Amino acid sequence: MFDLRKYKVKKIIIASTSTVHGTGYLEYILPELKSFFNKVKTILFIPYARPSGISYDTYTEKARVAFGKINIQVKGIHEFDNPEEAVLKAEAIFTGGGNTFELVNQLYKNDVITSLKVVVESGTPYLGTSAGSNICGVNMMNTNDMPIVYPPSFDTMGLIPFNINAHYLDPDPTSKHMGETRETRIKEFHVFNKVPVLGLREGSWLEVSNNDIKLKGELSARLFRKNKEAVELDAETIITQEILA
């Protein structure tokens, strides 16, 4: 059984995506972020996943524009001489999406993955989207990304006692594609692993306060556990130890 009591996380948002169809970057969740970061003046942005290989500066500017709408300044971790010190001193932290393999690789390369876990478990507010959400789980093994680099470990922060499958897609009954579905791939994971996996659909997120983990947004999420049928969790569900068992 997975013991929630060992997870000391304080204040986290774990979002499936940064952008939903028809809206701008972080636009759909900005009202939530305004409340979540209500006492924060400056947020540390971790752009290591950098989608499509854009520069850290370009990615950070994108985050800066979005957070500027709620009067929060953004500094990129790459702008500091000492990344670990930047993490330890941050008021709040945002890790953006992109490629999870590259994100995890850079977190280990810059020796910040342990300090990141420590500060978040100590109460530093944290926002993750996509790849930045994947690293909140026990490991990154349920990412949808291609392995463009080989990180030293697949282990991530373990802030929650399960893994995230961001951008979860349901099978399309009209599709003629006969390959694997997302559900099939997660079941393959469970042939060799016991860690529960939560499929987060676009526009959904988890709100973590102390040890309470609540599903937010308008859509349900799909929970997969080894040797059990997948179940749908409705919005506003609090994910308890009993649900994960």
TrEMBL record:
GO biological process terms, semicolon-separated: proteolysis
InterPro entries hit by this protein: Class_I_gatase-like, Peptidase_S51
Subcellular location: Cytoplasm
UniProt-listed Enzyme Commission number(s): 3.4.13.21
Any Gene Ontology CC annotation: cytoplasm
The entry's keywords: Cytoplasm, Dipeptidase, Hydrolase, Protease, Serine protease
One function term, GO molecular function aspect: dipeptidase activity
Catalyzed reactions per annotation: Dipeptidase E catalyzes the hydrolysis of dipeptides Asp-|-Xaa. It does not act on peptides with N-terminal Glu, Asn or Gln, nor does it cleave isoaspartyl peptides
PANTHER family listed in its UniProt record: ALPHA-ASPARTYL DIPEPTIDASE, PROTEASE S51 ALPHA-ASPARTYL DIPEPTIDASE
NCBIfam families: PRK05282.1
Annotated family: Belongs to the peptidase S51 family.
Protein name as annotated: dipeptidase E
